[in-house]
Amino acid sequence: MRQDRPKFSAKERYVPASKTSRVFHFGMLGVQLIGGTVTEAIKQKAGLSEEKDYQKGKSGVAKYALNERNADRLAESFRKMRGAALKIGQILSTSEESVLPPVMRDAMEKARSEADIMPIKQVVRIFERAYGPEWQANFKEINLYPFAAASIGQVHEAVLADGRRVALKVQYTGIANSIDSDLDNFKMLVDVLGVFPRGLYIEELIKVSRMELHCECDYEREAAYQRLYHSKCIVSPSKYYAPKVVDHLSNKEILCTEFVDGVEIDTLMGEPWKYAIALAALMLELCFRELFEWQVMQTDPNPANYLYEKSKGNLNLLDFGAGREFSMDFLGHYIEVIHGAYTSDRQKILDSSLALGFLTGEENKEMLNAHNTGVMIVGEPFRTANPDDLYDFGTADFTEKVVKILPTMSKHRLTPPPAEVYSLHKKVVGTYLMCIKLKAKVPARRIFEETYQNWKRLQKGEPLLPRYDE
Prior knowledge:
- It is built from 16 helices and 13 strands.
- The chain has helices at about 20-45, 60-65, 70-80, 85-95, 100-115, 120-130, 180-195, 200-215, 220-230, 275-295, 330-340, 345-355, 365-380, 400-410, 420-440, 445-460, and strands spanning about 140, 150, 155-160, 165-170, 240, 255-260, 265, 295-300, 305-310, 315, 325, 390, 440.
- The strands form four sheets. Strands 1, 2, 3, 4 and 6 form a five-stranded antiparallel sheet that branches. A four-stranded mixed sheet has the order 5-10-9-7, with helices on one face.
- A hairpin with a 4-residue loop joins strand 9 and strand 10.
- Helix 4 packs across helix 5 (about 100-115).
- The mean pLDDT is about 85.
């Protein structure tokens, strides 16, 4: 057995497993956040502190709740508690400034990348429970310290007795049973502090997150999606790969898979531009192929779920706990919304959005205009002059444009978006943000045109055409 400390910053702390202990931690967090909010209000009223840019436009408690100390407290608590608490932090870390100010988003990013890890004794007990007292016989070598840690579990490197190099994803003790109480307590904090806009429909977001988190805690379900992705990726072996599952060492709490190499995609900032272009194109194309060719999507945009192999130029796909399928009916309307943005067809956008449930048909002119504008913003990369033109995500100003219409949508929206959209748009927004961070130039129009053409062929039962670079 090896005990090599992880390269990332991490503290060894037992996961608060009981409902009582997690309620206590949330209660302490609430007290700290309220104290931080009061302190910020007093300092600004007394002239000891100036109003920050991210506080402008806020009023009441929400204005003072948004401050650096509160952001750090949230990050520290989420990092320690893990589970649903840290998962919420992961979701928020991929949000745009129009949803969450940078001070909070950056803190959530820090929590995502520096999650605490389980003490070795706790890890050994999990292995003993899963594989029996002679559990070490399964391995030639295993590192009891993880090389990665996230919201639901942590990942260990090992070599099996037959010589295969594997990754073991081990679920935190008690996490599956804490999801509901964590989300209920988070909702309570949100209601007290009021830091989210009404148009975000936080109740719907929590409802969808609750369902997704229960699914992500079932590693047998995740293994099934990983096998599915492994078979889907075979059609483009030079672009995508999903590691094989080692069935006899996988169960509901441990997922054992083939080990793959590569670098996390968010570490490629500042690398030569050729990597940024290739990676961003792979990410955007993956989004479309998942939806409109495979009808299944891994909806978690966490950058750690992708490893880029520079030498091969391909993308290794990891972590399928957030996998979900979409109906052909939903996808048919959804692709027509995108096509409406591609062709600048306002009526098509509105008609398809109504069919999807984005709109009720009773919206006023202000809401319809804002909705159409929002769709056109998202579809901007697909409207370059020529199919081979590269869209420059590095100069895109999506956030500024969205900020302008958000107040109107928050005020006049009559219905929350369809349930499928919450998880789907996490992935889409995460992909766009990664392209922006990479400052990549992408043949977005060509990627969409090929997707739309293949979607139409799929409806007719015709074989799909290969991509232009395959």
